[in-house]
Design brief:
alpha/beta; binds hypoxanthine
Length: 277
């Protein structure tokens, strides 16, 4: 059997020794957004360090645990802190948590991140509903022997970000009076921020936001047949579009500043997804 699949099954076994909670929605919290996990009606939590073979994040501001519980009537598993390719993990480790949440039973993956705005109309503090992504500047997480137990060798990617879920998020933002931009997320490897020329390239290619996560997780989830949606918190104008050099501190500060609004948008969207699950 595929060694990545064996690793996933062992990780699932560790989870199942701690909780038999079966989530409907899997939520990945990005930079500065981890506090949302403290607000859900918590049933159980499992530290990543307790899971055999699990990649543990090294980035400040990224806690490492799964939180299980309810948002409204919806059963969720929340990843408080994700792992990134730039930390040095193999891509199969980077997407292991996503796959694991699918194997726990989640039918929907809700992705969040902090991202740089490549679209000139975007400002720090804006939210962007992810309509599609460009992962062409990043290795594909499905390279290698296919895990047939999870999905097909050549999965379709013509609608990665589910139309109905996008509609629910848009309607929720409208009801909450939270302005919501929409656009294409471009994943780079990091950890250096992009050069201005790379940002221009991303923009000319049709991208609106640039970041170091998310698209590979979306592809791994879509491969397994999960319904995917996501929102970027635009924490800064991307390189070359702002006056000042970029810093991780700036990213975190902006994300922290709008975190309350972001949290209510994500929470209420998930509550509203209850009717389509
Ligand atoms: N580039 C890449 N990743 C990011 C950025 C950025 O400008 N802001 C937050 N994450």
């Amino acid at each position: 059997m595929n060694s990545d699949y064996i690793k996933l099954q062992e990780a699932l076994k560790c989870i199942r020794e701690k909780t038999d909670f079966v989530p409907e929605v899997a939520l990945i919290l990005g930079s500065g957004l981890g506090a949302l996990a403290d607000e859900i009606q918590q049933e159980a939590s499992v530290d990543y360090s307790e899971i055999k073979g699990f990649p543990v994040s090294t980035v400040p501001g990224h806690k490492g645990r799964f939180v299980f519980g309810y948002i409204g009537d919806v059963k969720v598993v929340v990843m408080q802190g994700r792992v990134h390719y730039y930390e040095g993990y193999s891509l199969s480790d980077v997407v292991l948590p996503t796959r694991l949440m699918g194997m726990m039973g989640a039918k929907v993956l809700f992705l969040t991140n902090a991202a740089g705005g490549a679209n000139l109309d975007f400002n720090a503090g804006d939210f962007m509903l992810i309509r599609d992504h460009i992962m062409a500047f990043f290795p594909n997480p499905l390279v290698g022997p296919n895990i047939d137990e999870l999905g097909p060798r050549f999965p379709d990617m013509s609608e990665i970000y589910d139309r109905e879920l996008r509609g629910i998020i848009k309607a929720t933002a409208g009801k909450l009076d939270i302005p919501l931009k929409e656009g294409v997320y471009v994943q780079f490897t990091g950890p250096s921020f992009e050069s201005p020329a790379e940002v221009r390239m991303a923009s000319m290619a049709g991208g609106d936001a640039v970041g170091m996560s998310t698209a590979c997780e979306a592809v791994a989830a879509k491969h397994m047949g999960l319904r995917v949606c996501g929102i970027s918190c635009i924490s800064n104008k991307a390189a070359g579009l702002a006056e000042n050099p970029l810093s991780h501190e700036e990213v975190q500060e902006s994300a922290d500043r709008v975190a309350p609004l972001f949290k209510s948008l994500v929470k209420t969207s998930i509550e509203n997804m209850g009717r389509v699950l």
